[in-house]
Amino acid sequence: MIRKSLLLDEEMVRQIGILAKKEDRDFSSSLRHALRIGLLALQNPELTAAEIKDILEARAELEAGQIEELDLEDL
User: Fold this and answer.
1) Which pLDDT does position 61 carry in this prediction?
2) Residue 4: exposure state from Cβ atoms within 10 A (0-12, 13-18, ≥19)
3) Which of 4, 9, 40, 64 is deepest in the core (most CB within 10 A)?
4) Rounded to 10 degrees, what is the CA torsion of 54, 4, 2, 56?
5) 42 lies in some domain
6) What is the Cα–Cα distance from 4 to 30, expressed in whole angstroms?
7) Could you tell me which residues come within 8 angstroms of residue 23 by beta carbon, excluding any fewer than 6 positions away?
8) Is the CA virtual torsion 8, 10, 16, 17 positive or negative?
9) Is residue 37 part of a domain?
10) 50 phi and psi angles, rounded to 5 deg
11) What pTM value is reported for the model?
Protein backbone atom coordinates (compact mmCIF):
# COMPACT_ATOMS: atom_id res chain seq x y z
CA MET A 1 0.00 0.00 0.00
CA ILE A 2 1.26 3.47 -0.84
CA ARG A 3 1.20 6.27 1.72
CA LYS A 4 0.23 9.76 0.60
CA SER A 5 -0.42 12.96 2.49
CA LEU A 6 -3.49 14.99 1.73
CA LEU A 7 -5.27 18.01 3.09
CA LEU A 8 -8.88 17.72 4.22
CA ASP A 9 -11.01 20.46 5.68
CA GLU A 10 -12.31 20.03 9.22
CA GLU A 11 -15.86 19.25 8.09
CA MET A 12 -14.65 16.43 5.83
CA VAL A 13 -12.58 14.97 8.67
CA ARG A 14 -15.62 15.18 10.96
CA GLN A 15 -17.87 13.44 8.42
CA ILE A 16 -15.36 10.66 7.75
CA GLY A 17 -14.93 10.22 11.52
CA ILE A 18 -18.70 9.82 11.93
CA LEU A 19 -18.82 7.36 9.03
CA ALA A 20 -15.98 5.38 10.62
CA LYS A 21 -17.89 5.07 13.89
CA LYS A 22 -21.13 4.09 12.12
CA GLU A 23 -19.42 1.36 10.11
CA ASP A 24 -17.03 0.24 12.88
CA ARG A 25 -13.94 1.10 10.82
CA ASP A 26 -10.82 3.07 11.56
CA PHE A 27 -10.49 6.49 9.94
CA SER A 28 -8.21 5.33 7.10
CA SER A 29 -10.41 2.37 6.20
CA SER A 30 -13.48 4.58 6.24
CA LEU A 31 -11.80 7.13 3.98
CA ARG A 32 -10.70 4.42 1.53
CA HIS A 33 -14.22 2.95 1.48
CA ALA A 34 -15.86 6.34 0.88
CA LEU A 35 -13.34 7.15 -1.85
CA ARG A 36 -13.97 3.81 -3.54
CA ILE A 37 -17.72 4.40 -3.56
CA GLY A 38 -17.22 7.95 -4.80
CA LEU A 39 -15.00 6.85 -7.67
CA LEU A 40 -17.46 4.13 -8.65
CA ALA A 41 -20.29 6.70 -8.52
CA LEU A 42 -18.37 8.96 -10.91
CA GLN A 43 -17.85 6.04 -13.28
CA ASN A 44 -21.50 4.92 -12.98
CA PRO A 45 -23.67 8.05 -12.67
CA GLU A 46 -26.85 6.04 -13.21
CA LEU A 47 -26.35 4.25 -9.86
CA THR A 48 -26.97 5.68 -6.40
CA ALA A 49 -24.39 5.34 -3.64
CA ALA A 50 -26.73 2.88 -1.90
CA GLU A 51 -26.90 0.72 -5.03
CA ILE A 52 -23.12 0.77 -5.31
CA LYS A 53 -22.78 -0.30 -1.66
CA ASP A 54 -25.27 -3.14 -2.26
CA ILE A 55 -23.30 -4.32 -5.31
CA LEU A 56 -20.02 -4.26 -3.36
CA GLU A 57 -21.62 -6.21 -0.49
CA ALA A 58 -23.09 -8.78 -2.89
CA ARG A 59 -19.72 -9.20 -4.62
CA ALA A 60 -18.01 -9.75 -1.25
CA GLU A 61 -20.65 -12.34 -0.27
CA LEU A 62 -20.20 -14.12 -3.61
CA GLU A 63 -16.42 -14.19 -3.21
CA ALA A 64 -16.82 -15.53 0.34
CA GLY A 65 -19.04 -18.34 -0.93
CA GLN A 66 -22.09 -17.17 1.01
CA ILE A 67 -24.24 -16.88 -2.11
CA GLU A 68 -24.23 -18.31 -5.60
CA GLU A 69 -24.53 -16.42 -8.85
CA LEU A 70 -28.02 -16.61 -10.32
CA ASP A 71 -28.23 -18.60 -13.53
CA LEU A 72 -31.15 -17.21 -15.55
CA GLU A 73 -31.45 -20.47 -17.51
CA ASP A 74 -32.45 -22.25 -14.29
CA LEU A 75 -35.52 -20.04 -13.85
Assistant:
1) 92
2) exposed
3) 40
4) 0
5) yes
6) 16
7) 30, 33
8) positive
9) yes
10) -65, -40
11) 0.75
